[in-house]
């Protein structure tokens, strides 16, 4: 059920943009599942504390440049001002196997301004699951879309898909470390009539372009993002201060003020 939380004092409204995370969170093919056990229990000690083993690339998570760029910034190196700011939630509906192009981003409302946080909503977050379709048939950014975004100087780029790139441009398909989904290339060709090695010849090219420019990315945006798609809002998502960290789960939130009167006090 969609939910908007309103601050009773400022009137500022908050919208959840994260998927719920626990041991049921789907994991990328080839990666281990989240494992959680109760290390301490209420019935025994009157306290609850979980012990968790996880790959950081599960659920709604942020990627630092070091994820794909050797000697790139880690999560602890990213300047905190990138984690909060105004931005655009672009409505770019896409179907199975489709590509998000620069032309798609250029025409998508509400438009991107210099220095924005950019959230790209294809509708794929509705398919979030441990599923062949979710991971293997998702839309993804093209090379020219990533180059277009870099020119806009964004603080962050977030997508509601499992990958920034098309899955056939990742190790899900016939690239380094892959194919993690052995059926994928054949199914793609069967469904589209296209050769994945021709259509997606470069490994994680869109993601590498963004991270090479020092732009953190967030994958698997979800929650109630449909409420704010096509709108300008203020956005926040803060990762751990994780030295050498390539990624971690984040809670992403959109904020807006229907009255237009809410302002951050200077603190003087």
Commentary on this structure:
The protein has 268 residues and is an alpha/beta fold. The chain has a single domain (4-256), classed as Putative cyclase (Glucose Oxidase, domain 1, 3-Layer(bba) Sandwich). The protein has helices at 42-45, 102-107, 132-136, 143-151, 184-192, 196-199, 205-212, and strands at residues 4-6, 13-16, 35-40, 49-53, 61-63, 84-91, 99-100, 117-121, 140-141, 156-159, 217-219, 231-237, 247-249, 252-256. The strands form three sheets. It has a ten-stranded mixed beta sheet with strand order 1-2-14-12-6-8-10-11-5-13, with helices on one face. Strands 3-4 form a two-stranded antiparallel ribbon. α4 packs parallel to α7 (205-212). It is globular and about 60 Å long.
Furnish the topology, listing elements before pairings:
Layout: E1 4-6, E2 13-16, E3 35-40, H1 42-45, E4 49-53, E5 61-63, E6 84-91, E7 99-100, H2 102-107, E8 117-121, H3 132-136, E9 140-141, H4 143-151, E10 156-159, H5 184-192, H6 196-199, H7 205-212, E11 217-219, E12 231-237, E13 247-249, E14 252-256
Parallel strand pairs: 6-8, 7-9, 8-10, 10-11
Antiparallel strand pairs: 1-2, 2-14, 3-4, 5-11, 5-13, 6-12, 12-14
Helix pairs in contact: 4-7
């Amino acid at each position: 059920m969609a939910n908007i939380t309103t601050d009773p004092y400022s009137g500022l409204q908050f919208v959840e943009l994260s998927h719920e995370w626990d041991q049921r969170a789907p994991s990328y093919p080839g990666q281990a599942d989240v494992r959680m056990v109760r290390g301490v229990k209420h019935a025994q000690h009157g306290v609850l504390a979980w012990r968790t083993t996880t790959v950081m690339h599960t659920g709604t998570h942020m990627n630092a440049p070091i994820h794909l760029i050797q000697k790139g910034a880690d999560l602890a190196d990213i300047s905190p001002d990138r984690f909060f700011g105004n931005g655009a939630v672009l409505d770019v509906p896409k179907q199975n196997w489709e590509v998000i192009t620069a032309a798609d981003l250029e025409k998508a409302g509400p438009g991107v301004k210099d220095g924005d946080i950019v959230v790209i909503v294809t509708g794929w977050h509705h398919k979030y699951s441990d599923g062949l379709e979710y991971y293997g048939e998702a839309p993804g950014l093209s090379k020219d879309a990533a180059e277009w975004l870099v020119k806009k100087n964004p603080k962050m780029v977030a997508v509601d898909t499992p990958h920034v790139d098309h899955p056939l441009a990742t190790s899900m398909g016939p690239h380094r470390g892959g194919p993690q989904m052995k059926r994928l290339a054949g199914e793609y060709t069967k469904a589209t009539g296209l050769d994945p090695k021709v259509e997606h010849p470069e490994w994680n090219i869109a993601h590498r372009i963004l991270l090479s420019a020092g732009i953190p990315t967030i994958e698997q945006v979800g929650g109630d993002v449909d409420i704010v798609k096509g709108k300008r809002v203020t956005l926040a998502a803060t990762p751990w201060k994780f030295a050498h960290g390539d990624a971690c789960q984040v809670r992403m939130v959109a904020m807006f003020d229907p009255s237009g009167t809410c302002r951050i006090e200077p603190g003087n």
